[in-house]
Amino acid sequence: MASLARLFPGVAVVTGAGGTGIGAAVAKGFARAGCSRIAITDINPKTLDQTRDAILSMNPSVEVLNRAGDIADEKFVDSFNNETYSRFSRLDYAVNCAGILGGDVIKAVEMTTDAFDRLNNINYKGSWLSCRAQLRNMLKQEPLKEHPKQRGSIVNIASQLGVVARPGAAAYCASKSAIINMTRANAIDYSDDKIRVNCVCPGVIETPMTTASKAMAEALKPAIDIAPMKRMGTPEEVADAVLFLCSSQASFIQGHALVVDGGYTIN
Fold this sequence. Notes:
The chain is α/β, with parallel strands linked by helices and 267 residues long. Helices cover 42% and strands 15% of the residues. A 7-stranded parallel sheet has the order 3-2-1-4-5-6-7, sandwiched between helices.
């Protein structure tokens, strides 16, 4: 992460930033890399406060805006992003990490409509709402003098299962595929506006969601065993990829789905 220091002079927004998962790692990564104004959100206010405290313990001079709320709630998403823009006067880097796993291995005919709606409302709709609000604010501003080639950069978190499928995960795979193609479409639509939109597709990452139970560990073991590196990734390894895509070092990368999965998808 040291090589990325001072590459983030603007304002960053991170969703799903509570706890010890990918979003928290991204938010802390921005702070380490020199971003002094960071807005974070998560549905869990307690874990969100933990991320804020961790950022401030690293660098007390960072200005942190934290607001707990539901990423699938249009009014909350718009309010959070508008408050961020109003307070900091711009929005340069947006990372949409909020999401849930598909839960139990379940085939399509066994899945309830309520479970399907919850999965897609958080994973896809939440990312779509966030992107819309972020794009609206980025379009209001001129590029930073440090980043003359980009007015803003958005990175969405998809999944290796947005690229390939696995048994018993039809709805989850579809929700993550939707994020990838939404990313590509937005990249096309806003390239002329100097806004870059990319996504990262993590493999099995060691987070509270993936280590929550023995049943979850057993369900994920085949995916770990198939991948050439044969291990879980860390949230920090995903965060490094995210920060690279946000940075000026990635100024000619647009609409890309960067897979960070220990080689799972090359099989």
